[in-house]
Write a structure and sequence with these properties.
The protein has 319 residues and is mainly alpha-helical. It has three domains: 141 residues, MazG-like (Helix Hairpins, Orthogonal Bundle), CATH 1.10.287.1080; 68 residues, MazG-like (Helix Hairpins, Orthogonal Bundle); 54 residues, no CATH class. Helix content is 71%, strand content 0%. The protein has 16 helices and no strands. Helix 13 packs antiparallel against helix 14. The longest helix is centred in the last third of the chain and has 25 residues. The chain starts with 6 loop residues before the first helix and ends with a helix.
Length: 319
């Protein structure tokens, strides 16, 4: 009589083409069926999460639209880690952002549109195409980045996009009209960033003030118009004029070569830091924010400012 096969050998033979069946049969964690490392592991994780039969109910029901807010949030968290100089957090946040890309690509693959590899190929091809001074012929590399090449390549890409969308039967009104100058400024960008990009685009064809002075004059004009709307008690006009004022402030930032989003983010951080000191000092004296007067909190705010100035002075070797 032939010897009875070992149980682990039977399991391996029965499920050699199905890693998940193998781990099920041996009662090992399902994670053991995943690729060991790299992008293949992450793609397999997402495929398992979205599996209609065995996946996570929350992940299965997600759509492009439902996870879009998380994609934006993760991008901001990457930025926050960079601003804090926290490389440990940056590693984690970059992973979270990468997961969002994999998530969208997986949903697209499920509906038969494209897969993650198509995303990788598209961005790789775009980078090669947009950098002939790096990836081009010896002559192109020697010539460097020729004036106007960026605009030419972008125009070529737009024409190719129209052809590809036509091939896929994706016609819309934008495909039937010539591309406009501001079309490639995404409407979903943060409003301040979008304002700067719109103004930069307009400036590229000469629609811009020649220096900062007239922009500051316009800023004061918009502030005056908002005050008039306030005096009239017209809330809709106040909102509109406030928007105009913010748009001009974005233009001030552009002329100063200041990123308004970064500048405001730094001010937000400063406000958090100083307000936290107010809370701390009040707590030291056994008091709460609710019990403090505006005058007291204002005095503590000034104290926090002086504390920062003294610290910054010491850091610079002065004081």
């Amino acid at each position: 009589m032939a010897p009875k096969p070992r149980e682990d050998v039977k399991i391996e033979q029965a499920a050699s083409d199905d890693p998940l069946a193998t781990v099920e049969a041996s009662n090992r964690p399902a994670a053991d069926a995943l690729p060991a490392s790299g992008m293949e592991r992450l793609l397999a994780v997402m495929a398992a999460l979205r599996d209609p039969d065995t996946g996570c109910p929350w992940d299965i029901k997600q759509t492009f639209a439902s996870i879009a807010p998380y994609t934006i949030e993760e991008a901001y968290e990457v930025r926050d880690a960079i601003e804090r100089g926290d490389l440990a957090d940056l590693r984690q946040e970059l992973g979270d952002l990468l997961l969002q890309v994999v998530y969208h690509a997986r949903i697209a693959e499920e509906v038969g549109s494209f897969a993650f590899d198509d995303v990788v190929e598209a961005i790789s091809a775009k980078m090669v195409r947009r950098h002939p001074h790096v990836f081009g012929t010896r002559t192109e590399r020697a010539a460097g980045a020729a004036p106007g090449f960026w605009e030419r390549i972008k125009a070529e890409e737009q024409a190719e996009r129209v052809v590809e969308r036509s091939r896929l039967g994706l016609h819309d009104a934008a495909d039937q009209t010539p591309p406009a100058l501001l079309d490639d400024v995404a409407r979903t960008l943060p409003p301040l960033t979008q304002a700067v990009k719109l103004q930069k685009k307009a400036a590229s064809v000469g629609f811009d003030w020649p220096s900062l002075g007239p922009v500051l004059t316009k800023m004061r004009e918009e502030l005056g118009e908002m005050e008039v709307a306030l005096e009239a008690g017209d809330r809709d006009a106040v909102g509109a004029e406030f928007g105009d004022l913010l748009f001009v402030m974005a233009n001030v930032a552009r002329h100063l070569a200041v990123d308004p989003e970064e500048a405001l983010a730094r001010t937000n951080t400063k406000f958090r830091r100083r307000f936290r000191r107010i809370e701390f000092w009040l707590s030291e004296s056994g008091r709460s924010l609710d019990a403090a007067t505006l005058e007291e909190m204002d005095a503590l705010w000034d104290r926090a400012k002086e504390e920062e100035r003294a610290r910054d002075g010491d850091a610079n070797g002065s004081g």
